[in-house]
Amino acid sequence: MGKALFITGTGTDIGKTYVTGLIVKKLRDAGLNGGYYKAALSGADEDENGNLLPGDALFVKEMAGIDEQTENLVSYIYKEAVSPHLAAIRTT
Fold first, then answer.
1. What residues form DSSP beta bridges with 77?
2. pTM score, two decimals?
3. Is residue 92 pLDDT above 80, yes or no?
4. In CA terms, which of 30, 40, 78, 79 is 20 to 30 Å from 49?
5. Is 61 a catalytic site residue?
6. What angle do CA 56, 52, 76 make, to 5 degrees?
7. Pick from 1, 66, 62, 10: nearest CA to 35
8. pLDDT at 16
9. Quick check: 31 pLDDT over 90?
10. Alpha-carbon 64 to chain mean position
11. Is the pLDDT of residue 23 over 70?
């Protein structure tokens, strides 16, 4: 098993996704097998067909050049912009 980093912060819109994208990009640029995974994402936008778009995962995927299906990067996607555990309760 490889080493892992866990990025966390104290609020919303403070740069966690941006920093994560930079770290993964730098790892990949250095020839390392850097990847990305987000267990749950809330506050997702919808596309024209009503599908939820995992903005954070899409951002990191593009910034870091990750060649992976987006659905493999995020397990749970919620529309409501609240904590993921609350979004999950409100969805069911």
1. 41
2. 0.86
3. no
4. 40
5. no
6. 65
7. 66
8. 94
9. yes
10. 12
11. yes
